[in-house]
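Hello,

Our lab assistant flagged a job as stuck in the queue for most of the afternoon. It eventually completed. Since we weren't sure the result was trustworthy after the delay, we are filing this so someone can double-check. Below is the sequence as submitted and the structure that was eventually returned. Let us know if re-running is recommended.
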Amino acid sequence: MKEINVKEANGKLGVLVVGVGGAVASTFIVGTLAVRKGLAQPIGSITQLATMRLGKRNENRFPKIKDVVPLAKLDDIVFGGWDIFEEDVYEAAKNAEVLLPKDLDGVKDELQAIKPMKAAFDQNFVKRLHGTWVKEAATRWDLVQQLREDIRNFKTKNNCDRLVVIWCASTEVYLPMGEVHKDLAKLEQAMKENSCEIAPSMCYAYAAIAEGVPFINGAPALTVDMPAMWQLAEKMNVPICGKDFKTGQTMMKTVLSPMLKTRMLGLNGWFSTNILGNRDGEVLDDPDSFKTKEVSKLSVIDTILQPDLYPELYGNIYHKVRINYYPPRKDNKEGWDNIDIFGWMGYPMQLKVDFLCRDSILAAPLCLDLVLLTDLAARCGFSGIQSWLSFYFKSPMHDFETVPEHDLFIQYVKLKNTLRKIIGEETLDYID
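-- returned structure --
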């Protein structure tokens, strides 16, 4: 198999994080810095810990991914980003209360040096937050130009060879796809007219892609998941991926739903509720922001179970999702699932799941993997939607002609097979 021509990962990789002072972003940054200083282990990161089988089973070749795939080194990463609050990442991480002081103090100097740039912000899109460190501009188009200048300045100042932009900020209010989102020229005109159909996240996405920088959407908003942005990404030969990091409850759904379907067990109803107390929980306490998250969470089961093909098993599912803001829990989310299933001759059964997870602890290694893999995609010359990275997202991006794949294990095979192609190895079909 012919090996893909991959540019070497020379020089520094700048990682610009939108919401750099938030719980997810600060946890991601602290952990990455701690790992490269030998103070922590990158648990949860596939790029750092997972192995990958190469060749036939009897060859017994199971190298670590990072030892055979030309990924950027952690030592070459330089962090920066934007936030609606001025505090440096050390102070932000303290306020997030995800990590213990001893973990922050091990990389304190590096964290204090990461000071956010002013954010592109509109409170109409995140109603529960009141940003104090924000840009001023007459139009969305002017905001985009300011963000592009930020990107260029960061690259020059930090002597970066390449950049990646990743959205780790809050969930914006629900915004359905309109005509302005379906054509690049219309999108640009809407930005110049300061249209209310242009969310701040779209400004970041446009600015990054226009500068030739890959963009990762870690939230469920429209942002880059629209034909206009796909056109721009193809025009600029830039990889994009998203949307909404797959961390806790939805990750469990992408594991349990395939189990039900594989065994041809029926499903009557799936009730999911969460309690969460961090800034994300506060934002999602607003019904308009929750709507965006709800659409993302609800899409998983139907796509996996294919009710049109199996109406007797999945044709009448009642699926409900709730998120409740509960400040005492802070970042320690709890997700409860009640799953009503049925088996032979229609007899009912139940599954109960209680996942006491740490939202940012689960999301941080996903951020690291996505940054490294998206940078790899750019060096491979890949552009547009990176469906091989669906493993990491609740609502994997796809064009209108493609049915998204939600099954976690199928996604994992696709991820590894793409890596095999990149290094010139045979893909696996597991029939050997």
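-- support follow-up --
The delay was a queue issue, not a problem with the job. The result is valid. The mean pLDDT is 94. The chain has two domains: 12-245+361-422, 249-357.
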